[in-house]
Specification:
2 copies of one chain form a homodimer.
Chain A lengths: L5 E6 L11 E16 L7 H9 L4 E11 L5 H19 L6 E8 L6 H13 L6 H7 L8 E9 L2 E10 L12 E6 L5 H14 L4 E2 L9 E6 L15 H21 L7 E9 L2 H12 L2 H8 L5 H9 L11 E4 L2 E5 L2 E2 L3 H7 L4 E7 L5 E8 L3 H8 L4
Parallel strand pairs in A: 3-4, 7-9, 8-15, 10-14
Antiparallel strand pairs in A: 1-2, 2-3, 2-9, 5-6, 6-7, 10-15, 11-12, 11-14, 12-13
Chain lengths: ~400, ~400
Amino acid sequence: MTPKGFLFSTAEAAIKKPGKKDLALIYSGVEASISGTFTTNNIKAAPVKINIKKIRSGRGQAIIINSGNANACTGKKGLQDAAEIIRLSAKGLKIKPSLVYICSTGVIGTPLPMDRIRLRIPELIDQLGKSSIEDVAAAIMTTDTFSKIVNKKLKVDNKIGTIAGISKGAGMIWPHMATMLCFIMTDIAVNQKTLNRVMLDAVKKSFNRITVDGDRSTNDTALVIANGLIGNREVTEKSSSFKVFRNAIHEVTYELSRLIVKDGEGATKVIEIEVKGAVNEKDAEKVAFSVANSNLVKTAAYGNDANWGRIMSAIGYSGVKVREEKIDIHTGNVKVAVKGLGTGKDKEASDALKRKEVKVVINLNSGRSSAKVLTCDLTEEYVKINAAYRT
Amino acid sequence: MTPKGFLFSTAEAAIKKPGKKDLALIYSGVEASISGTFTTNNIKAAPVKINIKKIRSGRGQAIIINSGNANACTGKKGLQDAAEIIRLSAKGLKIKPSLVYICSTGVIGTPLPMDRIRLRIPELIDQLGKSSIEDVAAAIMTTDTFSKIVNKKLKVDNKIGTIAGISKGAGMIWPHMATMLCFIMTDIAVNQKTLNRVMLDAVKKSFNRITVDGDRSTNDTALVIANGLIGNREVTEKSSSFKVFRNAIHEVTYELSRLIVKDGEGATKVIEIEVKGAVNEKDAEKVAFSVANSNLVKTAAYGNDANWGRIMSAIGYSGVKVREEKIDIHTGNVKVAVKGLGTGKDKEASDALKRKEVKVVINLNSGRSSAKVLTCDLTEEYVKINAAYRT
């Protein structure tokens, strides 16, 4: 299920604990189209600053990633270090440095251990092809408990193309990107502008609609790289295969974002908050995030308590004008509140919360717009993980 | 330390668990000036809706409070119930219903147990004077672990006046009022407009600058009632005693708000986040709240980890334009970051976090404005309390 022409390798530079891979290289045999979205945090990690400039060209061939250190809040040295890694990689790969992208994830504020990374770059390049996409997905993990890979095959111009996506997430997850890295590779030829538009829209409906803890990271990056090796005619918005391609990318990003929430730090369940009947999509999204980010809603979900009062309260402070007496709330398929009042079915609704995947539907009954946000519950384990992260 | 002319009583109506007082009455022997601020949550509890209308008169004499049930999201019945409690109390007290205020705190979405409350109102009135202000402070508690009382004596026109304030808080605490009730009583005569302005300003700098979990409640109310029984000339903004009075109210609200944070659900420490060097006060407040509401900052504080990277990240996503390379951060009196870079003093900074009261100072070095916000750490205990709140 690996798209044609992509090679991988991983290495250990002792950035994470010994015995764990923390460097990864993704390489396309040929120059490719590339598109990306990055954190909206005003404080951006060095690699993000660099990628934002590079991506304007729309061209790429390699991505080098380290986990365990975010290379954020590291000043000029951080930028120099990232530039050096790019330079060394490009030299070894014999390609232009402008075609090499760099991503980091991990602890903020500590310089990269360059002495150890420098040593490993030749090894990474020599070993290209000896690692699988699964190895890369594992090497980019930080507090993730499982690796995240999604594959799709689709027909374009009677040729079979493959899309493979990997991501890492876990904590510091919030809309507009989180400590979240996502790499999508495909061997389908795609027009650069089309790739940008499809990716932007897909990210908006997936990674920008998940939340674990309301914290946005300095490092979030989602890249899609398309090398065209199946030899199709370039997909544009006018192509007959456009919709198939767009839907496949949406499915890949949605599924990867769902996996990130599922693996939210300490999470025991995934909660989908759907807000319907809003005046516009922005309002629907605002209400959904207000509920999805409420620590009180998230702890109640953890305790299997269909505490719809906390949901009402979070709707109320979302900043969106709502009419209390019009709001209906479903937990699972149990109507727990109608026209702003409890139905007394709290017991059944609480039973519905006991599943691993829970749906909460809020109908504001004020318009026709809707939005879905994915979140997870808040547990003692989240606190434990984050109180002890650096120790 | 009780202001002249105020009488108290408490009763048990089995709204909370058996053996706990859950009804309280505050009564001034004479009609008084009253001023209040209420939740900004769009979904307001029935008593809040009623008080907001009443308070326009600026006159009051009694406040009846129940804990254990918020009377929020209870529709028309909730409003009828609150009105009936007011009517019955006014009748028993032989005062106009317009002089009786009502407050509720507790679980959202369940109608008040009116049969039991109705029975207790005559008892509450008969027993007036048999309870102390301490008893009232205890009766209004929900998940609070200690009662919150602050007293001040001050000289006005050569007469000694008293200000006594009580509050309850614990969870669902956020700026612009939280599940927070505050009642301030004084025997000093104060001009109605002056009282409004002093209270509004005091709330802005105290209750609106605390956060436990970023959740704002449907019920928040802060009332100040001034009966003038010491016989001073009414305090106005032109009085020589104005500043003394204003400062005393500020001290009372600040101290009560500090006690609420100290008693934050599961909290082990109070954290003051001071942001300096901002372009304006609004920006300073925004940055301070972004840091104070970050679950990652709060769990790190719990783990005594001076993880300044998480602070930088929260500054970055506050929405305020900042220059990373200008930011200094102190934890306790340890400089942990200078000009956006770590000083390597993480160990000393972490030791500074081990106290019960911790100061974090962030200097944006971009202007002259500042703001302080109080928060607490996020612990496993918070999750436990809120996962099991209704069970």
